[in-house]
Specification:
By secondary structure, the protein is of the alpha/beta class. Helices cover 27% and strands 23% of the residues. The structure holds pyridoxal-5'-phosphate and lysine.
Length: 422
């Protein structure tokens, strides 16, 4: 059960008492419920039942190899955006033939690494990238399978910083340009253009933008089919939103989303690919942190946590809401706090004016919705070591990343003792 499903804050996640865990591991750390991830994956797989469909988890959402290993065991492939993510996915046991490679700036080295690994499909985002893939595949004497990422010019009605499917966004190519790629496919004999791809944005809570995008991609596929082009996969990206604020955010029912796929692509005879990231992991994760101190400011009370913006960037970056639970006696009186971290930035604020049970130093605090774009976006800012990650499963736990040590934090740095003439 995810934290936001619970009517009253509980410290039990996937059968593990986070109070006990926090007593043995030092806070802050991320805890992920394997059961909740499994339930999300299997629910989506059930909704897709009867379709030739494949889930490729967007590794950027949570790139911990323990989580990727869990995905592999559930028959989920990977959507990668870098050679580093390729490396992680392979280390975690995801087959190269289950990997698609997206991203607007794949380097020559990254393309070569993905070709050598034998990934399934390149999602190409520019004519230059098509030419580069052609050159590298030609040099290796192989033919790469590729999809054109089309930009369907749809407003995903999400935060501007995570909207990707408008004409003004850097992602994909417009359908006119994509038409030209297919017309000239013979000029790139080492690239088999046999797929379409679209991803319009993230944390999408309305079905209409998906309907528009899928209809545009489906119409383009029919046009290509009439022109004699064989498309064996249509990849509709990720984007399904989740509930960050209990009682407020209303995520799309995956059955409704899949009903759109079934309707718009009823005569498609290839494979449908989805690249969910957030939907599979966000609500399965919590950031476990403690109150360092309660500070009484001028007209405001600050709850200073031992977690900070370097550990979970989303509030600072997008003003994102995350539910915050104080592990406390339900009878504690309520109080209004600004919940902040120790980093030296005013933006290091998890929540403003949040009404919570009255807290004292040492209280345990759980920040919900932290399984996606949490640890994977964390940094060493203020020289704070990267925090630990723990996978929970039916009363057991496994540390899937140890907290970074100070020595590890500076391992690649050195004093300037050896100078080279430039
Ligand atoms: C190409 C691509 N696929 C999938 C995703 C995953 O998105 P989400 O986490 O919203 O499902 C992203 C990130 O937005 C992306 O850029
Ligand atoms: N990092 C973003 C999502 C970006 C999606 C990646 N294309 C978030 O935390 O919401």
């Amino acid at each position: 059960m995810t934290m936001s499903d619970q009517p009253t804050p509980s410290a039990i996640l996937d059968g593990v008492d986070l109070r006990a865990l926090a007593a043995s591991l030092s806070t802050p750390f991320y805890a992920y419920s394997a059961g909740a991830i499994r339930a999300r994956v299997q629910g989506l797989q059930r909704a897709l039942d009867g379709l030739d469909a494949r889930l490729c988890f967007a590794v950027k959402a949570n790139s911990n190899i323990g989580v990727l290993h869990l995905m592999a065991g559930l028959g989920v492939g990977a959507d990668i955006v870098s050679a580093g993510e390729l490396w992680r996915a392979r280390q975690a046991g995801i087959a190269a033939s289950d990997i698609v490679f997206s991203g607007v700036g794949k380097s020559a080295d990254e393309i070569a690494a993905a070709l050598d690994a034998g990934i399934w499909k390149f999602n190409l985002e520019s004519a230059d990238e098509l030419a580069l893939l052609q050159d590298i595949a030609y040099g290796r004497g192989v033919v790469a399978s590729a999809a054109v990422r089309v930009n369907p010019d749809v407003d995903a009605r999400t935060h501007a910083k995570i909207s990707t499917g408008r004409a003004e966004n850097k992602f994909g190519v417009d359908i006119d340009e994509a038409r030209g790629w297919f017309a000239n496919a013979g000029r790139s004999p080492n690239v088999r253009l046999d797929g379409l791809h679209a991803h319009i944005g993230s944390q999408i809570l309305e079905l209409a933008p998906f309907e528009q995008a899928i209809a545009r991609v489906a119409a383009f596929w029919r046009e290509l089919r009439e022109a004699g082009h064989r498309i064996d996969s249509i990849d509709l990206g990720g984007g399904l939103g989740v509930c960050y604020r209990a009682g407020h955010d209303r995520p799309i029912d995956p059955d409704d989303y899949v009903a759109v796929l079934r309707r718009e692509l009823h005569d498609f005879d290839g494979r449908i690919v989805l690249e969910p990231g957030r939907y599979l992991v966000a609500e399965a994760g919590v950031l476990v942190t403690r109150v360092l101190r309660v500070k009484h400011g001028r007209g405001r009370d600050f709850l200073v946590l031992d977690a900070a913006m370097n550990d979970l960037q989303r509030p600072a970056l997008y003003d994102a809401w995350h539910d915050i639970h104080v592990v406390q006696d339900a009878s504690a009186p309520l109080q209004c706090y600004d919940v902040v971290g120790p980093v030296c930035e005013t933006g290091d604020t998890f929540a403003r004016d949040r009404v919570l049970p009255r807290c004292a130093a040492g209280d345990l605090v759980l920040i919900g919705g932290a399984g996606a774009y949490g640890a994977s976006m964390s940094s060493n800012y203020n020289s704070r070591p990267l925090l630990a990650e723990v996978l929970l499963d039916a009363g057991r736990y496994a540390v899937v990343r140890r907290r970074q040590s100070f020595a590890q934090m500076i391992a690649n740095e050195q004093l300037p003792t050896a100078w080279s003439e430039a």
